[in-house]
Amino acid sequence: MIVRRYLQVSWLGLSLVAPTVAQSQCPEPCLIAVRALKLDSLPAPVQTYYSAGFQIRATQDQALLREAERFYADSLGLGTGISLALLNAADWKRVNNRPYGLPNLSISDRVAFLSATDDGVITMDLLRLEATLSDTVRAKVVREGISFAEFARSMTDVIGLHELGHTYVASYGINPHASWFNEFLSSYFAFAFLQSTHPRQARLIEAMIEARLERPPPAHTSLKDFEQFYGKAMSPDNINWYQAIFMQQVAEVSRSKGLGFLQTVRDAFPVAESDSVSAGTVLERLERIHPGFRAWADRRGQ
Fold first, then answer.
1. Among 38, 79, 197, 200, which residue has the fewest nearby CB atoms (within 10 Å)?
2. What is the pTM of this model?
3. Which residues are registered as beta bridge partners of 279?
4. CB of 166 within 8 A of CB of 20?
């Protein structure tokens, strides 16, 4: 079990074609703002700045990020050169205008922001799932030998790895053309790593997907809505729902395609391609790569 890692880190200095939620979150360059906090830090690779009292957590998070970097350096020849800011609410508010605990990435200077405490919006939303948890999902968590609270907190590992995935989308030479596909690919990088190196955590991800989808759907559920509202007017609960839907499809594709899916996607969506590719064309190409994408999108209302 990976203990409470928050790996949302994903940059390479290359700007992503489909913007992430985190593009203008700091009043000045994010790395400068974080350094101005004068926090303790752990040295590169993955230089990690952390609020007082969170050195152990920072060390754990950094170790997992470094492991993911090594995995993709060995398997796909990729690198990142990222930094991590693991902050409490007070430090976060001094440098980042996103809601506390909504993990985000500064693309320009490759800084990932993660909450150090449980009162961040995403962690709190996940913890609330326990009240409506089915016996089926509860049994899956019990079989892994952890409490639901530990289970929910472990999902921050995925969030951090997802952010790392954003950098890999760019560095691997993929132009996703759509924000939802950018998010999907970032989660694919995260899940493929965990499936290969931490299968227990991969199983827990699938249990969390079930837990989230047992609840009523949120206000926005279509891919079209995601394109329109993501990063603008979408609640943390709604974001969690979309990420669960994306990760559910990621897990299905990854089981049969593995890292080969990423290689095929790179050929089908080259980074040099213009941004005029339509949503329909994105789905047509994905359907050819892995039949079932169109039906999956249709269930979302496209």
1. 38
2. 0.88
3. none
4. yes
Q: What's at 170, amino acid-wise?
A: A
Neighbouring C-alpha atoms within 13 Å toward the C-beta of 187: 26
Domains of the chain, CATH where assigned: 30-299 (1.10.390)
Confidence of residue 197 (pLDDT cuts 50, 70, 90): very high
SS (H, E, C) the chain: CCCCCCCCCCCCCCCCCCCCCCCCCCCCCHHHHHHHCCCEEECCCCEEEECCCCHHHHHHHHHHHHHHHHHHHHHHCCCCCCEEEEECHHHHHHHCCCCCCCCEEECCCCEEEEECCCCCHHHHHHHHHHHHCCHHHHHHHHHCCCCHHHHHHHHHHHHHHHHHHHHHHHHCCECCCCHHHHHHHHHHHHHHHHHHHCHHHHHHHHHHHHHHHCCCCCCCCCHHHHHHHCCCCCCHHHHHHHHHHHHHHHHHHHHHHCCHHHHHHHHHCECCCCCCCCHHHHHHHHHHHCCCHHHHHHHCCC
Q: What count of residues does the chain have?
A: 302
pLDDT tens digits for range 110-126:
899 999 999 998 888 88
Whole-angstrom Cα distance, residue 157 to residue 146?
A: 15
